[in-house]
Amino acid sequence: MAAQDASRLAGKDRVNKTKLVYRLPVSFYLYQLSGLVVLGVLFSWLSRDEGLDRLITGYWYDAASHSFPLQKNPLLDLINHRLLKDIVIAGGVIALIYGVIRRQPRLITVAVLFGLGALAVGILKATSHHSCPWDLVEYGGKALSYPLFGQVPPDSGPGRCFPGGHASSGFAAMALFFLFYRERPTLAWCCLAGGAALGLIMGYGQVMRGAHFFSHNLWAGWWVWLTQVVVYGLASTFMVKEPQSL
User: Among 206, 146, 147, which residue's Cα sits nearest to residue 171?
Assistant: First the structure.
């Protein structure tokens, strides 16, 4: 009987630990930040003259009609632009509410990371002078384009199109990495890859409509992951008194 009680208590302790926020080793953050630096350099190189962006966007632009034929496509608008985004947002809200009700700090933290990653992109997007492809002169609009680090032209248009805000909703799912890494690292990496894939898919749907350049989505993923890594590192430092070995 005593052995059964001890086993039951040990099992309960393991379950409780899966609900707690945990620290990740310093090496994890060094690897992630190093990877982000490398990706930042790569994305900057790809964005230097918008060559890749124009190559991809040109495939979806109809020069004869001076428009993007899929701009108002019902499936892209309903499924990709609205439904997928709403599902991700609803998932984050449900996770937050469930985490609060069940008193699961780790789930609450991950749900908050969902929102903070997208919020960081939203703030950058709101202050950007880069206009969307469908607003640019080259694609039937009136605004002038310019490279990522180029000088802002006088007629840059409405702006507010960099990084890709819609793609950030998909990339937000990368936060699930922190939910599973301690107990199920393989699943955690799959969640990270799945979130990255979802962001790219959602972002490419916008490229097809003329709403964003491809590089806008790459940078959205970069900013979302940077935000999530930094915020989780800070949160776990303040919430966990002693480092936990992994």
Answer: 206
pLDDT-derived band at 5 (thresholds 50, 70, 90) equals very low
- The answer to whether residue 3 is domain-embedded is no
For residue 1, tell me if it sits in a domain. Answer: no
Tell me how far apart the alpha carbons of residues 187 and 180 are, in angstroms, rounded to a whole number.
Answer: 7
Could you give the count of Cα atoms lying within 13 Å of 122 in the half-sphere of its Cβ?
A: 9
pLDDT of residue 8: 52
> What would the two tokens of residue 98 be?
């469930």
Those residues whose C-beta lies under 8 Å from the C-beta of residue 75, and which sit 6 or more positions away, are none
Kindly tell me if the per-residue pLDDT of 2 is higher than 70. Answer: no
As a whole number of angstroms, the distance between CA 43 and CA 216 comes to 10
Q: What angle do CA 231, 112, 110 make, to 5 degrees?
A: 80
Q: How many domains does the chain have?
A: 1
Which range marks the domain in which residue 54 is found?
Answer: 23-62+72-239
CATH number of the domain where residue 189 is located = 1.20.144
Task: Write the pLDDT tens digit of every residue in 108-142.
Answer: 999 999 999 999 999 999 999 999 999 999 999 99
